[in-house]
Amino acid sequence: MPSTATIQLGDQKFDFAIIEGTENEKAIDISKLRDLTGYVTLDTGYKNTGATKSAITFLDGEIGVLKYRGYPIEQLAEKSTFLEVAFLLIYGNLPTQQQLNGFQNQISKHTLVDEDMKKFFDGFPSKSHPMGQLSSLVCSLSSFYPESLNPRPTPQEFDQTIIKLLAKLSTIVSWIYKKSLGHPYIYPQNKFDYVTNFLNMTFGQRTEDVVIDPIIVDAMNVLLILHADHEQNCSTSTVRIVGSSDCNLYASISAGISALWGPLHGGANQAVIEMLEQIKNDGGDVDKWVNKAKDPSDSFRLMGFGHRVYKNFDPRAKIIKKACDDILEKLGINDPVLDIAKKLEEVALSDPYFVTRKLYPNVDFYSGIIYRALGFPTEMFTVLFALGRLPGWIAQWKEMRENKEPIGRPRQIYVGEVDRDFVEIGKR
Ligand code: ACO
């Protein structure tokens, strides 16, 4: 491998160092490009731009590999719990039993939200989208915990903010769901583990705890683990860039939640189920919809298909597809949209349009079917994605701060008007 890359501008040559990551990813370090040459790079959508060096998540989209801190996603999904993975992502290593107990206890102690927060829930119209509520409520945590505004907290202070956010998000998410039903809020209980507590607050009744089927607890753990991090995607980059201005953690995560909402990103899980329902209600003619997705004059896309980085099977989609079959079978549910999803996948994967563009099902293609089987309404799906992604966002934000990264501020190539003289309003 060469140690430098040379850029030639006219008869001048400039050498730039080549950087290699631990998984042999290669980059040209152009951090001095503008100083040396006066040029910047242009890369809309950052398709070729590495924004940081990160030690959290590795993914190889060509062969479909995903690892958190070096551990394959398949092993984590099979053998660990969501809180173990959260600890791993945030602190870099798998916790010992003692560390895990301490982490779980700390989180249990902070699951209550300030009673004044209920007024926010009361203020939202009953039909407001859960993601809009989530983003606002998470940002509002900065008002309840103003110590988080300090951009240079001690590690202990920062740990407290992390714990509070992890703990309170599950309460906020379940209360958003209760609000959508017009049902009373269920308070968190320390006797439950993280996932059971969340499910109890979501599906429990006021007077008695609901008995949560262990199948559902396991499925929820797997879904949360699979969503826990995915390196520099749209929402994570948003979290890092907002945090780079020394903005507090709550506001940075709130911005990430907004970025996740879009149907091209985390909102795809809702869009997939809506699309599958539409195909079912239209008579289930899968070929017709595949043709629509291929038609350049039609804006319809197969939601849950394609990915910026994966040009092979998304390993998370493989795990979710299998989990989907298992869970529906164990719960005795027969969901007709699962058949449509499978047929759609089969047709698309053998169609030259999808094959040549390397478009495969992504994590969102089957996740919605599981969420639905677990009892969640469609509008809650992206909120559940956010609940899973939270540890990843926190880990990435923490890494950005620990690396002392500068404020994120891309350049542009200006293509607008030049030098116009102001003309008064009556003379235009
Ligand atoms: N259906 C039909 N055609 C598609 C699809 C799709 N789902 N995805 C990409 N293509 C086509 C594009 O039209 C384009 O074709 P062209 O070369 O003839 O112009 C080609 O494949 C490349 O697509 P781009 O949009 O350039 O790829 P990009 O990396 O910018 O977008 C994205 C990736 C946004 C995920 C895209 O594949 C998409 O819109 N998928 C559907 C939404 C979705 O499932 N999003 C969730 C992603 S996973 C996540 O964020 C959690």
Please tell me about this protein's structure:
By secondary structure, the chain is mainly alpha-helical. It has two domains: 4-65, Single Sheet (Rubrerythrin, domain 2); 67-417, Orthogonal Bundle (Citrate Synthase, domain 1). It is 52% helix and 7% strand. The protein has 18 helices and six strands. It has helices at residues 33-37, 73-79, 82-91, 97-109, 117-123, 130-144, 155-181, 194-203, 214-226, 234-243, 249-261, 268-281, 286-294, 315-331, 336-349, 352-356, 364-374, 381-402, and strands at 4-9, 12-20, 26-28, 57-60, 65-68, 71-72. The strands form two sheets. It has a three-stranded antiparallel sheet with strand order 1-2-3. Strands 4-5-6 form a three-stranded antiparallel sheet. Helix 2 (73-79) runs antiparallel to helix 9. The model has no long low-confidence stretch (mean pLDDT 94). It binds acetyl coenzyme *A. Residues 233, 264-266, 268, 293, 301-308, 357, 359, 362-364 line the site of acetyl coenzyme *A.
Low-confidence stretches: none
Instruction: Please report the number of helical segments.
Output: 18
Write down the overall geometry. globular
- CATH level 3 topology of the largest domain: Citrate Synthase, domain 1
Strand content: 5-15%
Mean pLDDT equals 94
CATH top-level class of the largest domain: Mainly Alpha
Estimate the helix proportion, in percent.
40-55%
Please name the CATH architecture of the largest domain: Orthogonal Bundle
Largest sheet: 3 strands, antiparallel
Count of folded domains:
2
Distance between the termini: 60 Å
Class by alpha and beta content: mainly alpha
List each distinct ligand once.
acetyl coenzyme *A
Instruction: Using the CA coordinates, give the radius of gyration.
Output: 23 Å
Q: Order of helices and strands, N to C?
A: EEEHEEEHHHHHHHHHHHHHHHHH
Number of DSSP-assigned strands: 6
The strand line-up of the biggest sheet is: 1-2-3
